[in-house]
Design brief:
Blueprint lengths: L8 H10 L4 H16 L6 E4 L2 H11 L7 E5 L2 E2 L12 E5 L10 H7 L4 E7 L10 H6 L4 E5 L7 E2 L2 E2 L7 E4 L12 E4 L16 H19 L1 H13 L8 H6 L10 H12 L1 H19 L18 E5 L7 H12 L11 E2 L14 H9 E5 L8 H19 L1
Parallel strand pairs: 2-4, 2-5, 3-12, 5-6, 6-9
Antiparallel strand pairs: 1-10, 7-8, 9-10, 11-13
Helix pairs in contact: 1-9, 2-9, 6-7, 11-13
Bound molecules: pyridoxal-5'-phosphate.
Length: 403
C-alpha cells in the first residue's frame, strides 16, 4: 500500500538532527503551529500517539459512562468502536447514506435515543460534512465528535474540518493525509480543557522501529524494489511498527501514549509545506476524476473543492466477490497502487464485530463491497507517466465492467 502521502525523504532525513532539541520543545511547537493553522486556542490542541487515543480522550471529556450509547458509523475502522467499552457505554452502529460516504441525517435522527451521548461523525476519504442545526437542536444531550482521521485540513464552507462540532480526532498514521508514522490529534470543543496528563512515552526501540517502517514506506512509494528490500530487512531485524493484533482481533482498547518525538517533528515539517501539497493533490484528484468519468458506470462522489482527499474513492456498479484480488489485478495492470478501503463495515475484514450483525447496515455493506481507491500522494506526478498509467487502468476497468 502506497503511504507517506505528504512526506518527503528529505523531510524524514533532516528530522533526525532536529530531534536533538527534545520532545517537549517539539510537541509545544507543533501544538502552536496546529493552533495557528486551525485558528483555535492552543489549549484546544492535544497530541497523542494515535487517532484512537485522541478519540478515547474525547469520550472522557464528554463524560461518557455506563448506560450511555455511542453511535458509530457502519463504515469505519475497528479501532474507533474499540475505545467505547472501557467507558462502560455501548456501541451502536448507524448506517451511512444510500450511495454516500457519510451519514444520512434523517437516519441518524431516527437512530438517536435518550441514552445516546456521543455520535461519531465520519468524513470518509476526507469529504467534510456538517450536522444540520435542526438535528443538533433536537438532540441537545448528544455530542457530535468528528472522526477526521481521513480529512486533515479539509474545509467545508470556509471552516476547517474538526473545528465546528463538539471535538474532533485526527490521525497521523502512515497512510493518512499527513504522516508521523503514528500519531494523533484531538481538537477539543471551544472552551473545553483536559488536565495536562503526563502520558507514557513510546519506548526508544519503538521510536527506531517507527523510523525504519517509515523509511521503507517512503522508498516503496518511489522505488518499489528498494521499498520491498528495506521492508524485508526491517522485518528481519524486528524493526516494523504496527498496531496490536489484540486490538484488531479482540477489540481491545488502546493504551494511550504521548506523541512520539519523530512524529511531532515530521508533522510540523509537513505543515510548513501544506499549501503546495494540497495544490498538488488537488490537481492529481482532478485528473483522476476526469479520467474515471469516461467510464460512467463507475460511481464518484461530489465534494467541495477544499477537500484534502486521503485517497480518491470510486465504486463499481456491482459487488465484487474478492475486492482485494481485483485491486491487485488493477494495480498490476496500471502501475498505480489501487486500495480497498474500507473492505468491510468494520475495517479490516475479520476484525472484532462489537455486536454488528450482517445486514444491519446495508448501505455500508454495499459500499464496502464496491469501493476502491486511488493513491493521493505527492510522489505521484501529474505528468505523461500518469497519463499512461490511467489509460491502462481505464482499459483494465473497462474489461472488468464487460466481464
Ligand atoms: C486510521 C483511522 C482511525 C484511527 O487512527 P489511528 O491513528 O490509527 O488510531 C480512525 N478512524 C478512521 C476512519 C481511520 O481511517
Amino acid at each position: 500500500m502506497l503511504t507517506g502521502n505528504s512526506l518527503t525523504l528529505t523531510q524524514l532525513f533532516t528530522a533526525l538532527p532536529a530531534m536533538l532539541l527534545g520532545r517537549r520543545r517539539h510537541r509545544a511547537a507543533l501544538r502552536l503551529a496546529l493552533a495557528s493553522l486551525f485558528g483555535v486556542a492552543v489549549e484546544r490542541i492535544r497530541l497523542f500517539d494515535s487517532g484512537r487515543a485522541a478519540f478515547a480522550a474525547l469520550l472522557k471529556l464528554h463524560d461518557v459512562q455506563a448506560g450511555d450509547d455511542v453511535l458509530v458509523p457502519a463504515f469505519t475502522c475497528v479501532v474507533v468502536p474499540n475505545q467505547v467499552p472501557p467507558s462502560g457505554a455501548r456501541v451502536r452502529f448507524v448506517d451511512i447514506a444510500a450511495g454516500g460516504l457519510n451519514l444520512d441525517w434523517l437516519a441518524l435522527d431516527a437512530a438517536i435515543r435518550p441514552a445516546t451521548r456521543v455520535v461519531v461523525v465520519p468524513h470518509n476519504f476526507g469529504v467534510a460534512c456538517e450536522v444540520p442545526t435542526w438535528l443538533r437542536e433536537k438532540h441537545r444531550q448528544v455530542r457530535f465528535v468528528d472522526d477526521a482521521a481521513h480529512g486533515f485540513a479539509s474545509q467545508l464552507d470556509g471552516q476547517w474540518l474538526g473545528t465546528y462540532h463538539d471535538g474532533a480526532f485526527f490521525s497521523f498514521e502512515y497512510s493518512k493525509n499527513l504522516t508521523g508514522g503514528i500519531g494523533g490529534l484531538a481538537i477539543l470543543p471551544a472552551g473545553a480543557s483536559l488536565p495536562d496528563a503526563d502520558l507514557p512515552e513510546l519506548r526508544c526501540a519503538d521510536e527506531w522501529r517507527l523510523l525504519a517502517t517509515l523509511l521503507s514506506h517512503l522508498l516503496a512509494a518511489r522505488w518499489p524494489l528498494a521499498g520491498r528490500i528495506s521492508m524485508a530487512l526491517a522485518r528481519r531485524v524486528g524493526l516494523v511498527y504496527r498496531s496490536g493484533d489484540d486490538e484488531v482481533l479482540f477489540g481491545e482498547p488502546h493504551p494511550t501514549r504521548a506523541m512520539p518525538l519523530l512524529s511531532s517533528v515530521l508533522v510540523r515539517r509537513q505543515l510548513a509545506s501544506l499549501p503546495t501539497v494540497l495544490a498538488h493533490k488537488q490537481a492529481l484528484v482532478a485528473r483522476y476524476r476526469s479520467a474515471l468519468a469516461t467510464l460512467p458506470a463507475l460511481r464518484q462522489w461530489p465534494a467541495d473543492g477544499e477537500t484534502h482527499w486521503v485517497r480518491y474513492p470510486f465504486a463499481l456498479p456491482h459487488p465484487v466477490a474478492d475486492k482485494a484480488a481485483l485491486a491487485r489485478r488493477l494495480s498490476a495492470a496500471s502501475g498505480l497502487n489501487i486500495g480497498v478501503w474500507f473492505d468491510d463495515v468494520i475495517h479490516p475484514a475479520g476484525s472484532f464485530r462489537h455486536g454488528y450483525r450482517a445486514g444491519q447496515a446495508p448501505h455500508g455493506e454495499a459500499l464496502a463491497a464496491t469501493v476502491l481507491n486511488l493513491p493521493v500522494n505527492i510522489a505521484i506526478g501529474v505528468d505523461a507517466a500518469l497519463e499512461r498509467k490511467l489509460a491502462r487502468l481505464l482499459a483494465a476497468l473497462q474489461a472488468e465492467l464487460d466481464a
